[in-house]
TrEMBL record:
Ca(2+) 1 binds at D22, V25, G27, D29, S31, E43. It comes from Oryza brachyantha (malo sina). Substrate binds at P118. Disulfide bonds join C23-C28, C76-C269, C155-C180. SUPFAM superfamilies: Heme-dependent peroxidases. Belongs to the peroxidase family. Ascorbate peroxidase subfamily. This is Peroxidase. The active site is at H21.
Length: 273
């Protein structure tokens, strides 16, 4: 991970997103890493992942090294959990002890990926509900959303916000419009955090307070609703954010496949043994 983040700081956010998108679909089981086969359509092509989920080759490289020294022992799901933690830490965020022992699923579900992952246009009620479906509280949701202090989003996911919404700082909207036209440029990237794009800090919440949230779903956390007070707290208390983020990451990382699910330790993260 140190090598990957050094080569491309954005990769820390990409791996963190893979972990989140893995855990929300039938538990943290490495299912997002599976390529499609003739017998099932996996999660890579689901709406929330197609042409946006990235970093698979980083996990492959780690897996190759792990297998060389410790064969058939460490699951792809555990590697993803550890890599997500290390990516956060390498970008200046906290570190924590990752509980291990996850197993890899032998299948993946595109339909579950399409239905379980909140979209960029989600309302606060939807966010609270979808995280709640995973046993995560509204506080967990608000803390985990702080992952958007790093990473980028494609223009197609925030275009509506910067051109049509009123709860947005005018200069921020104008800045984002420079690289995200009303039509075209769907894949053009902009940083979630306008202050420190590749530093894991609490600037995301400061941005929300000043109406500089990039996605509609970001600004929903600070828009006259139930999470406003917590966002204000995180915006001025980075240690509180770090503590809550770590707690929520461990909680999310404990999401497991339902009992009876066929699992294994995959030798290649892209395919079943």
């Amino acid at each position: 991970m140190a090598s990957a983040v050094r080569n491309e700081p954005r990769m820390g956010a990409s791996i963190l997103r893979l972990f989140f998108h893995d855990c929300f679909v039938n538990g943290c089981d490495g299912s997002i890493l599976l390529d499609d086969t003739s017998t099932f359509t996996g999660e890579k092509g689901a709406g929330p992942n197609a042409n946006s989920a990235r970093g698979f080759e980083v996990i492959d490289a780690i897996k190759t090294q792990v297998e060389a020294s410790c064969k058939a022992t460490v699951s792809c799901a555990d590697i993803l959990a550890l890599a997500a933690r290390d990516g956060v830490n390498l970008l200046g965020g906290p570190t924590w002890s990752v509980p291990l022992g996850r197993k890899d699923s032998r299948t993946a579900s595109q339909s579950a990926a399409n239905s379980n992952l909140p979209g960029p246009g989600s309302s606060l009620a939807t966010l609270i509900s979808m995280f709640g479906n995973q046993g995560l509280s509204a506080r967990d949701m608000t803390a985990l959303s702080g992952a958007h202090t790093i990473g980028r989003s494609q223009c197609q996911f925030f275009r509506s916000r910067i051109y049509t919404e009123s709860n947005i700082n005018a200069s921020f909207a104008a800045l984002r419009q420079q690289t995200c036209p009303r039509s075209g440029g769907d894949a053009n990237l902009a940083p979630f955090d306008v202050q420190t794009a590749d530093a894991f800090d609490n600037a995301y919440y400061q941005n929300l307070v000043s109406q500089r949230g990039l996605l509609h779903s970001d600004q929903e956390l600070f828009n006259g609703g139930s999470q406003d007070a917590l966002v204000r707290q995180y915006s001025t208390n980075p240690s509180q954010f770090s503590a809550d983020f770590v707690s929520a990451m461990v909680k999310m990382g404990n999401l497991l496949p339902s009992s009876g699910t066929a699992t294994e330790v995959r030798l290649n993260c892209r395919k079943v043994n």
